Amino acid sequence: MITGQLKRIIELQSLESNQTRNKKNICAVVSGKGGTGKTIFSILLSDLLAKQGNKILLVDLDINLANIHFLLNETPSKSLNSYFNHNEELQNLITEYSDNLHIIYGLNSYSIKDIPFKSSLERLIRDIDSISESYDLVILDLGAGISEFTLNALRISGIKIIVSYPEATSIMDAYAVIKMYENFDSPSEFQLVLNRCLDKNDGAEGFNKLSKAVKSFLKSSVKLLATICESKELRHSVAGQTLLEDANSDNQFISEFMVAAEKIDKYIHLTNINQPSKSASNNTSKNNSKSSIIL
């Protein structure tokens, strides 16, 4: 027989679980395999959203293969190394890259003994969930492929983005991510970014293939967030570690990333409308005329 006190504990645990599962201001960026441009997308999305007046936290969660600092040509004085190796508080590891863009640089380990324990990774998920209250959006740049850690990060994320190529093998990898998450938790909505497309039609064909497979075999759904065409300018920016410097220019690739940023900016605005205490503290430069989400 369940006592009143035990029943209340179960109800509280259920409420806490639902709050975590439905976290609206966390965005997970994943890919089925490496090399899709996931981290580049995460960086540019964070920068564009910050320039629109949103307070953004970008977290490098590619465990043991972190490279946000490299792409930004930074030598961080603090990173997740201190979190895992010295039990440093997560909020103490935030680097203020700009007024609205803050970054937690990732863990760089070079031996098996440095890989975090499962309990440490679970604690990290809880701490990210807690620290997200201070931001309009927390963007998690996760490692390629699927692990239990990645699945748990997806679970607390209100926006789930998969970065893929339009090629069939990459589309299959994206499908596998959606299927594994659905088996792990429950059906959900995923946003697809198709990178390095030959043209817009190439991206549309890739999306149609994935959408058809998801509709046929899964209960989840997928929407097209953006198509990004192959760009020599972007490749030069990455090679020269001038990604955010070139983001201030009129390069064509920036307009394609802006498509995704504008959709997510609308999502952020709607989320803040539903959180009056948070919305009152936001940068007053935000456009208050936006009142709907289009993802």
Helix/strand order: HEHEHHEEHEHEHEHEHHHH
Number of helices: 12
Fraction in helix: 40-55%
Mean pLDDT: 86
Low-confidence stretches: 8-21, 276-293
Q: What is the topology, as strand order, of the major beta sheet?
A: 3-4-2-5-1-6-7-8
How does this model look, in words?
The structure is a single chain. By secondary structure, the protein is α/β, with parallel strands linked by helices. 47% of the residues lie in helices and 16% in strands. The protein has helices at residues 4-21, 38-51, 68-71, 80-86, 118-131, 148-155, 168-184, 200-217, 232-239, 243-246, 252-273, 276-279; strands spanning 26-30, 56-61, 95-96, 101-104, 137-142, 159-164, 189-197, 221-229. It has an 8-stranded mixed beta sheet, with helices on both faces. Strand 6 (159-164), helix 7 and strand 7 (189-197) form a beta-alpha-beta unit. Helix 2 packs across helix 11 (252-273) and helix 7 runs parallel beside helix 8 (200-217). The longest helix is centred in the last third of the chain and has 22 residues, at 252-273. The radius of gyration is 19 Å and the shape is globular. The chain starts with a helix and ends in a 16-residue tail after the last helix.
Describe the structure concisely.
It contains 12 helices and 8 strands.
Top keywords for this entry?
single chain; 295 residues; alpha/beta; eight-stranded mixed β-sheet; 47% helix
Which SSEs are present, and which pair or pack?
Elements lengths: L3 H18 L4 E5 L7 H14 L4 E6 L6 H4 L8 H7 L8 E2 L4 E4 L13 H14 L5 E6 L5 H8 L3 E6 L3 H17 L4 E9 L2 H18 L3 E9 L2 H8 L3 H4 L5 H22 L2 H4 L16
